[in-house]
Specification:
The chain is mainly beta. It has two helices and 17 strands. An eight-stranded antiparallel β-sheet has the order 6-5-4-3-2-1-12-13. Strands 7-8-9-10-11 form a five-stranded antiparallel β-sheet. The longest helix has 21 residues, at about 1-20.
């Protein structure tokens, strides 16, 4: 009897682990909110400010059920703007630009290491690029175990060193929900703080950078650590906050 109970226990644990590995955390959820920050040391007269993206409400476009995607306080405007519609199918996240019916891939969480996925930019929909999955991890972020994929852009001509970056299942990327690491980060002036749903964190950048080996926590005052520091979009120099590159490695300032 004891042997049977032990075998049943092992089977249950293995089944639970397998099931956990197959659980998919969706990107598209009612009420999900991404808290962002803008900071620009090169223009000191323009103050830092926080803003957020969020999903709220349903819409039907071309027969496809979508969520409405908004931004509040972008460019410190204290206004809400509808940006696009968004939906999900087979672990792929699609967006439909405002006033259009054609859909484009924003994220593809269906691939494995070595696979190449093709995505589009939300502000320049014709700028489509391929990205290769170079590493995968499953880590406990917030409420759930989430699959993270390290993506590296594949560019035919790339005069500026382009770093790889993490996609986080159900969250987007390290730089926010609409930035896939493919087209830079607007001078790295805008970056993700946390992702929240139902008033609970599903992602927090401070927790995430401690879990990922290629992001080091940096909160320093000295300026002489190394002169070769770049933003993730390849601009030389660093700001007060965000993700930067030094000697080929990313570090996070907060």
């Amino acid at each position: 009897m004891r042997v049977f109970v032990f075998i049943l226990f092992i089977f249950t644990v293995c089944f639970s682990c397998t099931a956990q590995d197959k659980v998919y955390n969706p990107f598209v959820e009612e009420g999900k909110t991404w808290h962002m920050r803008y900071s620009n040391e090169e223009v000191p007269e323009y103050p830092d400010y926080d803003y957020r993206y969020y999903m709220k409400g349903d819409t039907l476009i071309g027969g496809i059920e979508c969520k409405k995607f908004y931004v509040f306080n972008y460019d410190n405007a204290q206004e809400t703007e509808y940006l696009l519609a968004i939906f999900e199918n087979d672990r792929k996240v699609y967006f439909i630009p405002k006033g259009m019916e054609d859909s484009y891939v924003l994220y593809d969480f269906d691939g494995s290491v070595g696979d190449i996925v093709s995505v589009a930019d939300v502000t320049h929909i014709d700028w489509k690029r391929d990205m290769r999955i170079v590493e995968e991890k499953s880590i406990n972020i917030g409420l759930e175990f989430r699959r993270c994929a390290l993506m590296r852009p594949i560019l035919e001509e790339n005069p500026i060193p382009t770093p790889s970056g993490w996609w986080i299942e159900g969250v987007g990327s390290e730089l926010g929900p609409l930035n896939t690491w493919l087209f830079g980060a607007d001078g790295n002036n805008r970056y993700l703080l946390k992702c929240v749903i139902n008033e609970q964190d599903v992602f927090n950048m401070k927790d995430f950078k401690d879990l990922m080996t290629d992001i080091q926590s940096v909160n320093r005052k000295e300026k002489d650590r190394c002169p070769h520091i770049f933003t993730v979009s390849g601009v030389k120099g660093e700001g007060k906050y965000g993700i930067f590159i030094q000697d080929g490695k990313k570090f996070y300032k907060h």
